[in-house]
Every structure is written in C-alpha cells, then in structure tokens.
Amino acid sequence: MKEGFRQSMAWLHTWSGLLVGWVLFMVFAAGTASYFKDEITLWMKPELHAAAQPAVPQVRAVESAVAYLQQRGADSPRWFINLPNERQRSTDVLWLAPPAAAGAATPEDKKPPRRRFDRASLDPATGEPVTAPRVTRGGEFFYRLHFDLHYMPALWARWIVGFCAMFMLVAIFSGIVTHKRIFKDFFTFRPKKGQRSWLDAHNVTAVLALPYHLMITYTGLVTLMFLYMPWAPQVAYKDRGGEQAFFSEVFPGGGRDQFKASGNKVPLAPIAPMIAQASAHWNGAAVGRVTVHQPNDANAVVSLTRAEGPQLSYDQPTMQFNGATGALIGTFGDVPKPAAETRGVLYGLHIGRFANPLLRALFFLSGIAGCLMVATGLLLWAVKERQKYAKTLKQGGRVGFGLRLVDGLNLGAIAGLPLAMAAFFWANRLLPVEMAERGEAEIRWFFIVWGASAVLGLLRPTLRMWQAQLALGALLFVLLPVLNAFTGPAPLTVSLRCGPSAVAGFDLVAIALGLGLASAVWLVERKRRKAITQKPAPKTPPQQGFATSGGGS
User: At residue 129, what are phi and psi to the nearest 5 degrees?
Assistant: First the structure.
C-alpha cells in the first residue's frame, strides 16, 4: 500500500529531526544563552560587579583608550576600541601583536604562526585598567560554541552546524505539512497519556514559537551563506578580482588588505574631531567602535562605526578618516545596496543585538521553547520505538541497540548539557584567579562534565540516572546566586545598587532554570513509581530511558 504525501512527510520529519537532534539541542541551548552573552560575561567577572559606572563623554573614553594603546601597542598594526554602552561598563581595547612578537620566523614552506590579540578592560574616565578581572571567555564561549563548536577547525564546525541547520529547516517544513491540525494541536495537551502527552508537548513548543523557529534556522544559514554557497560571486567576479572584489563592492570600506603601512612614522591625529563629525553625520547617534589601522604611520586610517541601535540590520554605517591628517576619506553604509541591506537585516534578526531588554527576553524564551521542541521530539521517538519491544520486555528481554543508543544520547544531551553549563559557571568561581590558561580551564570543565554525563548515560540510561543528572543540574543552578554572594567582592545588594539588572537578572534566570530541572526530576520520579507498580514480575529487568510509560529504576 502506497503512503500518501502527508505520511511520507511524517517519515521525513522524524528522521531529519532525529539524526541531528543532539547537535541541534546544543546549538539551540548555546545560541539562546548568547542573547545575554554580555550579561553572562559580566557575571563571570565579579571584580566588576561593584565598579562605578559614571557618565563619561565618548571623547574622553576614546582619548584615554588611545593613550593606553600608545603605551602598550604603539607598534601594533591594528587597534580596536569598543566603547561603553548600557550593557558594557568598561572600554574594551584589543590590539594585534606585531609580527615580531607573534612568533619566530618560520620556513617559507610553513604558514606563519597565527598572530594573537592582546586585550584590556579600561575605566572610561581614567583609561587605567579596571580591577584586574579574572580571565574568562564568559558568554562569548556559548556564542562561539553554537556555530564554531570546539576542539575542531572552525571551518569543519561551521559546515557541520550548517548541515544540521538544513536538516532542521526540512524538519520544520515537513512538520507543518504533517500536522494538518497544527493550530488546534497548539491548544491541546493531554497529560499522563504516555505517547500522546509527549506528542502534545512537542506540538505546543513547536507551534508556540513557530515563526521564531523558522526565522532563527533560516537566518542562521544566511549568516554563513558565503561559506555554503560561494559560487555566484566566484563566477560573476571571475574576471574582476574574484570574491575579494565582490566583498569590496558589496561591503565597501571593510577590507583589511587595503591598509598597508608606509614605514614613515607620523603621530596619530586627534580622534575627538573625528567623533564629533561622525556623530553629527549620523544625526547625533553615538560611535560604538573605533578601529585604527596602522597607527602612528603615514598611511594610518581611523574607522568609526555607529553604535548599535534599534535598527534591524547588523551592518552599521562607517566613516573613515586619514589617521595622519584627520581628513575624511569617505562614508560607507549610509545607503546600503538592497542585497547588502537584506543580508544585514537577516543577520541582525539572528543575533538580536537590536532588541531592547523585553524583546531580548522574548527571544530567550522562544529559544527555550526551541530546546524543549527538540528534546521532546527526541524523547517521542524513543517512546514510539519502545512500544515495539513491549512483548520482549514483558518476557524479560532487552531493547535493541539502536533504542539503547538513542536513550543514552538523549540523557547525555538533554540532562547532561544543562549540567555542564552549570558546571562551567561554578568553575568560573572556584578555579584559582591567577591560574594559567584559566579561560581554557573553565571550558575544559564544561566538556569534562558533559563527557562524563554522556558516558554514564550510555552505560546506564535508566530513570535513576535521569533523576541524578537532572537533580544535580537543578542544585547547581539554584545555588549559583549563593555562590555569587560568597565568591564575589560585593554581595548581591551591592551588585544590585552598582550595576544593576545584569547580575541580579542572571541569578534569577539561574533559579528559574534550576526549578525547571527540579520539576523534571519530579516528573521522572512519578514515572518511576508508576513503573514499579506496573512491573508484572520481579525478574523483569529495568527498562531504559526517560521517555517511557514504564521505565526502570
């Protein structure tokens, strides 16, 4: 008997979601956390919690940062100055190490060592480094994790994530086709009904934020579109300089190869008049970033980028000035070309930097719904598959290897990832502040805990293991505010007074996540007790898996 179109879409929906579901769960979780990566980074630098945040004119902040860079990186080929805003209190500066400091010379047949960036966080008023915060990747780790993964080349990681995102897009569209009563199902939830309950939970979390799921998946592919589909510019600009010519035309003023040092030392022109001219050109909008190419050289160029605002587009207009004379070179991005503007809007929608706190919170909740959608989909597959083994289990047999593998991977991803994220925050506060390679040590603990969780889940994917990992994750999240109060230089009340909602908001979200995991522990315990009462004989071996109507202990 031939399957209909809807039934074939159901098959496609199931397998396109299952095969990459564990990677998608990690991408959703890390990407959702990235909406508040600045706040996460602040929480992970408790030395800054009690720092004052006076209103400092931008010109003063830039001049003090330039003075600091002249002392520490006068020979650097490039400076970056990120100015303070409502989500960032300090002036963050980065400078590229000169070639001589980046590493020794290498033979011609080998690539030179990758040059590193030095960085510092400065007091906007004085230009002095703020109380030396501990070294940490902070929220940037989650941001990079959700598309660069870790411990592998970034190019490979982005291809893997793009492949999974395409599967996600297929799963979404095939799911829409499969569920002909999709909006009616949104208002339907039947608790304590086994497979039906998991199906209802999957439908509700999917439909609740369906526009968000479509947007975040498609725009995620757009952010790396030139990696996944480079052929159009390669062909169109084959005789005009290749892809670099394309990028120079579509994104003028953004290339780095055009800034070559002359070798003639010339003092850097004052930046204050440049900032005033740029702000006036942008109708009073503030400058967000200052980039100085080849500082203290006759060919120096100062690029000023407008601060992020309520505009959807990620691409902000830029003005470039001659670093030696202060003369305006050109303005870029004031009236972007349609294709560039479209890409900028889609990119901006994905990262959500334009959003105010309320809208960012809605994005965060939609991301949580995405995590639940993926998790319930993975568990639903296990429920359906376990029904095939009902007779075998009653006779004392075991489930097949495929189901046991999925049970273990589900446990390691759905319970293990939150546990690893909580451990990451605990490592931030418990590792010695002066420890060498401290930022990487925090990340290592993240993967150690996650790896241990996955191994234990694969070895024993039982309800007891689900309970243990969920309970430990709940405990670690709920106690994070207590850890913050005892390991930071300022108690929570001072943090609330001096730098307000970021630290307290992190603590409140941690408590909410902990309570959510605790409710999952209660759900598993109720399922375990029900399974015990339904066991037909004492010799029946424990069933594996969380998503079961009669799992083992």
Answer: -60, 135
Whether 226 shows a pLDDT value over 50: the answer reads yes
Q: How far is CA 59 from CA 96, 275, 276, 288, in A?
A: 23, 7, 8, 12
Contact assessment for residue 217 and residue 168, using Cβ atoms and an 8 Å cutoff: yes
Is the distance from CB of 31 to CB of 146 less than 8 angstroms? yes
Residue 356 and residue 381 in contact, taking contact as beta carbons nearer than 8 Å? no
Note the pLDDT tens digit of each residue in 65-86: 999 999 998 889 999 999 988 8
Which residues is 129 bridged to in the sheet?
A: 122
Q: Choose between 453 and 188: higher pLDDT.
A: 453
- Tell me, rounded to whole angstroms, the distance of Cα 62 from its chain centroid: 29
Convert 181-202 to b/e letters by CB count within 10 Å (16 or more is b). Answer: eeeebbeeeeeeebeebbbbbb
- Bridge partners (DSSP) of residue 88 are 85
**Alpha carbons within 13 A on the beta-carbon side of 303:** 21
Q: In the sheet where 117-122 sits, what is the strand order? A: 117-122, 91-96, 78-82, 287-293, 301-306, 318-322, 328-332
Q: How far is Cα 217 from Cα 207, in angstroms, rounded to an integer?
A: 15
Can you read off the two tokens belonging to residue 321? 């000035």
Q: How many CB atoms lie within 10 A of CB 208?
A: 17
Tokens of residue 487, six digits: 């390991």
DSSP-assigned beta bridge partners for residue 383 = none
Q: Calculate mean pLDDT across residues 201-217.
A: 90
The string of DSSP letters for 364-400 reads HHHHHHHHHHHHHHHHHHHHHHHHTTHHHHHTT----
Across 105-119, 187-201, 327-341, 466-480, the highest mean pLDDT is recorded for 466-480
Tell me the C-alpha to C-alpha distance, in Å, between residue 321 and each of 152, 189, 305, 350.
39, 61, 12, 31
Residue located via tokens 């369906």: 210
Write out pLDDT tens, residues 505-526: 899 999 999 999 999 999 888 7
The structure's pTM equals: 0.85
